[in-house]
Design goal:
By secondary structure, the chain is of the alpha/beta class. It is built from 8 helices and 16 strands.
Length: 324
């Protein structure tokens, strides 16, 4: 095919990004795919760290996503979850809608093996949530939740909301939400969740899902847990230092602090699940009507340079960039 001009978000300095004009070159590979982007999803917590330069230098290569250029050395591109229509590639992909891990861009040139076909009965504006749904499912697996467990979810951002809605719709767990943002707290209530505050000091929680990118609430999480309770760490802190009092609740109550990471299927269930079957489960979950109720903001990709910082702070749970 002829050269294709497209635009991509590039981070050029701390707290600064812009759109860069680029071209996709012709490839003779039979497995190469050209994807015209429909939507990409802003992962607010992670991209806040990226935008502010709060990225750890140690093991930074492990935080890179496929097709990222220059790692985290300025200038670099970034993004996470992208959905688009296949313009060219193997016959089974032509005119199909696919999901892939990729920086924010209006057009992507990728390998077929990195594309996941989107079911026909899933709306295109829900499909970008696949990556976050994978994270939520993995966190629930890591928690080894059992029927009757009392749950606290700290942080009602997108991941926290997905976990809460899965547990509500499939397990009918007793769930509390702690979310200091007033609009998100109100949304949690509108979805039928009980919300709580720092004034609640009852030590009656079996599992805490810690879903924020800020470590300041960890002491509260440990206080709320029962003896041998589990704290599932879902949020990512970037390179910020974490100050904790580990001499009281953590030590005395033998709290289990579990790191959940989406790139690994938990060994305890690994024999029964693969990345492919997890995708199928994630798609099935996304079709549940409860997820249609999550607040959504759609911003034209052409406006992202001016609005990116404000989008990172916007209370809507789903932050989509739309591409014409």
């Amino acid at each position: 095919m002829n050269n294709n001009k497209f635009q991509s978000i590039w981070f050029e300095a701390k707290d600064h990004c812009s759109l860069k004009n680029l071209e996709i070159q012709t490839s003779s590979s039979r497995e190469a795919i050209i994807v015209q982007t429909l939507y990409s999803l802003i992962s607010q917590g992670t991209e806040q760290h990226v935008f502010s330069g709060n990225m750890p230098t140690e093991n930074s290569s492990k935080m890179e996503i496929p097709y990222q250029i220059n790692a985290f050395n300025y200038p670099f591109n970034y993004g996470y979850s992208l959905v688009g229509k296949v313009l060219e590639g193997p016959a089974k992909f032509i005119n199909k809608t696919v999901h892939l891990l990729h920086p924010h861009t209006s057009m992507a040139f990728v390998n077929a093996e990195d594309c996941t076909l989107i079911p026909n009965d899933l709306d295109n504006d829900m499909a970008p949530l696949l990556s976050q749904m994978q994270t939520a499912i993995t966190a629930i697996w890591d928690s080894k939740i059992v029927f009757g467990d009392k749950i606290l979810i700290q942080g009602f951002g997108l991941i926290g909301a997905l976990i809460a809605c899965i547990l509500k719709s499939r397990i009918d767990s007793e769930i509390e939400i702690y979310e200091p943002n007033e609009k998100r707290n109100k949304l949690a209530k509108s979805l039928g969740f009980n919300t709580t505050s720092l004034k609640n000091k009852h030590e009656d929680i079996n599992i805490v899902f810690y879903c924020t990118s800020n470590s300041k609430g960890l002491d509260y999480a440990m206080k709320r847990l029962i003896t041998d309770g589990k704290l599932v760490q879902v949020g990512w802190f970037g390179n910020q230092a974490t100050k904790l009092n580990l001499g009281t609740h953590f030590h005395l109550k033998r709290i289990n602090w579990i790191s959940s990471q989406v790139s690994v299927i938990p060994p305890s269930i690994g024999a029964n699940w693969t990345f492919k079957s997890r995708n199928e489960l994630a798609f099935k979950c996304l079709k549940h009507p409860i997820f249609k109720q999550l607040s959504k903001k759609v911003t034209p990709f052409s406006q992202v340079s001016q609005k990116y910082k404000s989008l990172l702070e916007h209370p809507s749970l789903i932050q989509l960039l739309s591409y014409n």
